[in-house]
Amino acid sequence: MIRRTISRPVRAAAALGVVALVAAGCTSNTPEAADTTSSDSQRAGSSNDDPGDKVTIGFSGPAADHGWLGAINSAAQAEAKKFSDVEFKAAEGTNDASQQIAQVETFINDKVDAIVLLPTDGAALTEVATKAMNAGIIVVNVDREFSTPFAARTTILGDNYGMGVSAGTYACKLVKDKNLTNPVIAEIAGIDALPLTQDRSKGFADALKGCNQTVDNRVAAEFTVESGEKVASNLLQAAPKIDIIWNHDDDQGVGVMAAFDNAKRNEFAFIGGAGSANAMRWIKEGKMEATVLYPPTQAADGVRLARLLAQDKSMSDLVQVAVPRRIVLDAPVVTKDNVEEYLPLGFES
């Protein structure tokens, strides 16, 4: 997944964040997205990073009480600083939907050019986001979708189902490569009530069907270190033999790894999720098999696209040059073979 202009190898990944995104949504019935005039074609030949008209972008996201969310916020701010033509107004992170609605209202009153919004609750923020759009302000929705497409010009999403598919596909590869007979496969999920957890689990189960495997042991944590250690300890007690474990979240993975160490269990291949710096260091050290990225750069991508949209620019790498209305980022597997490429994107838990 991901994308940002950090180093040359990561720049290659960054290209996916703007090009591979497109497969998810470069067609639309709206005149805005369907317009491919000659002026668009001319703009497509220019460098989108060249300074343009000054634009003001408001950003609102949840409180950074989780390593991934902290990375989301810092990456957005860092991206905005790269552009001399962007005035970036970041609201204080909050998990209170009412407070976030008030932040968006302030952006509307300030007449910003665009708003990049990772809502605490997509449904709760839909009405005020629609109000911003109706006021002529471009809204870029990040990670948690609004209830209607009219609330945003563009939506940028991680691929939760795709994370599960990537993890399951890699697990199948391990089964084949290690010539495992009747392997025991375990899963440490996040909060089961959340659709994102359900999507990840479904993708994992669907991919395992490709090699005639199923999840033998499953527990659910709460995306925290403490819960990760607790449920992993319970899992290890219940399953004296495990061949492969997929943990949905690398932040809770700190606790999961602690449980492994306490139990002195390391006979299994450990696959993580999200792409923390801890996980990538463990991969380099041989303590972890792989992790599946859930890009912490979604809001940074949102800033880049909000700037393009506010400056009436297009995406020069596309044939259909208009900025897509819906973008789903990739969920690549990071292993010892490519960890150096993705390490600059790893977030601290």
Automatic annotation (TrEMBL):
Residues 57-313 form the Periplasmic binding protein domain. Gene3D superfamilies: 3.40.50.2300. InterPro entries: Peripla_BP_I (IPR028082), SBP_2_dom (IPR025997). It is found in: Cell envelope. GO terms for cellular component: cell envelope. PANTHER family: D-ALLOSE-BINDING PERIPLASMIC PROTEIN-RELATED (PTHR46847). This is Sugar ABC transporter substrate-binding protein. It comes from Knoellia flava.
